[in-house]
Structures are given as structure tokens and as C-alpha cells.
Design a protein that fits this description.
By secondary structure, this protein is α/β, with parallel strands linked by helices. It contains nine helices and eleven strands. It folds into two domains: about 120 residues, Rossmann fold, CATH 3.40.50.720; about 80 residues, Regulator of K+ conductance, C-terminal domain (Alpha-Beta Plaits, 2-Layer Sandwich), CATH 3.30.70.1450. The two termini are about 40 Å apart.
């Protein structure tokens, strides 16, 4: 079942905010993009539902946007910590249903959580971590931390598994992981059968503990 279209408010149109707003709109959602810089607003206008130039720290101007009507608001004002915090406080007071905010460092993130931001993100830090991990483990394409122990990871099929099957490799007993899906060319095989034969170029979506997934490398 297709997810219903949602309404998003994106405040701050730097590189992160611009990319976020364009992607959400491209995926079929309604996006109101906001910034104080008229050039940034004009530049993004063709790629979102609506773009508005206002000072988001102005409570009256922010209230005029009808923030309660959006499914979520994303504050991507990262450079000016004071403005970021003030805008988040105003959005919470105006009743935004779900608030996400970009933080520049741990202190900024701590303050955002204290004032009730539902989700705090660290784009630069997180991207650096992901890049470092991809350099250290070249066959890992994507990695999502589900908890302190478990990860959801996309890995390139180890060459020694080519021509064998899931049950032949005995991945669950030997490595302690579960193969949830396989990318093969343009095909996406969900819940592959145990006797499916691995092919060169397969990309595996696996679930398991970090140490178990690391053991595949070795």
C-alpha cells in the first residue's frame, strides 16, 4: 500500500535543507521551503510546492505558516545556534506535530533535546562516520545502526560464496546473520529461499550483530 502524501515544512535552505526539500518533493510530498535569503528562496521555488521568504525567528511570521497543519517540520539552520534553538522553541509552542532539527555539535544537540525536539540529526558527523566505515570495510555499501548490538547492512557478496547457496554457506549458524534480501541486477529478491544460488555481483541486505557481520570480512 502506497504511503499517503505528507506535508513537510523545511526551514533553512543551505545545502542540507535544499537537498532535503527537493528530495521530499520529488518523492511526491508537499513541501513548504522557508529561508530569510531571497536568492535561496527563488532558487528552490521550482522544485518544491511553495517557497517563502520570512525570518523564522519572527513568531508572527512563523505562525502565519500554519505549522500545526504539517506532518513534520525540519529545522536545518545549523550555523547560527541561537536562531536554531529559538525557531525550535517557537515551533513547539505553535504546536508543530513532529519536530526534527539539525545540530552542529553535541552541545547544540543536547539543548535541542532539552527543549523538546523529537529527533536531532548530525548530518556532517554521521556522513563522516559512514565514509570512514566504508573505507575500512570496502564491501559494506550501507549500514544502519538498529541498536547498540544489531545492524542492518548492505554488503557485496564475498567471492568465496559465489556458486554456493544460503543453506550451503550456512550463514545463520556459521555467521549468526540473516539475509533479508538480495539485489541482483535490476531485481530485488525479498526473503530469498535457502537453496537460492549466489551469483557474482549480488548485494546482500543482512541483519545481525556487529561482530557477526564483521566476521564475514575475515
Amino acid at each position: 500500500m502506497k504511503e499517503k502524501n505528507r506535508q513537510y515544512l523545511v526551514l533553512g535552505l543551505g545545502r542540507f535543507g535544499e537537498s532535503l526539500a527537493k528530495t521530499l518533493y520529488k518523492e511526491g510530498h508537499e513541501v513548504l521551503a522557508v529561508d530569510a535569503d531571497p536568492e535561496l528562496v527563488d532558487g528552490i521555488a521550482p522544485y518544491v510546492t511553495q517557497a517563502v521568504q520570512i525570518d523564522a525567528t519572527d513568531e508572527g511570521a512563523l505562525e502565519s505558516l500554519g505549522v500545526r497543519n504539517f506532518d513534520a517540520a525540519i529545522v536545518s539552520i545549523g550555523q547560527n545556534m541561537r536562531d536554531s534553538i529559538l525557531v525550535c522553541v517557537l515551533l513547539k509552542e505553535l504546536g508543530v506535530p513532529y519536530l526534527i532539527a539539525k545540530a552542529t555539535d553535541d552541545l547544540h544537540g543536547k539543548v535541542l533535546r532539552k527543549i523538546g525536539v523529537d529527533r536531532v540529526i548530525f548530518p556532517e558527523r554521521d556522513m563522516g562516520i559512514r565514509l570512514a566505515k566504508s573505507l575500512l570495510t570496502p564491501n559494506v555499501l550501507e549500514q544502519i545502526e538498529l541498536s547498540d548490538d544489531y545492524q542492518l547492512v548492505e554488503i557485496i557478496l564475498p567471492m568465496k560464496w559465489v556458486g554456493d547457496t544460503i543453506i550451503g554457506v550456512d550463514v545463520r549458524r556459521k555467521y549468526g546473520i540473516s539475509i533479508l534480501a538480495i539485489h541482483r541486477g535490476g531485481e530485488f529478491v525479498v526473503s530469498p529461499s535457502p537453496d537460492l544460488m549466489f551469483e557474482t555481483g549480488d548485494i546482500l541486505l543482512v541483519l545481525g550483530k556487529k561482530d557477526d557481520i564483521d566476521s564475514i570480512e575475515q
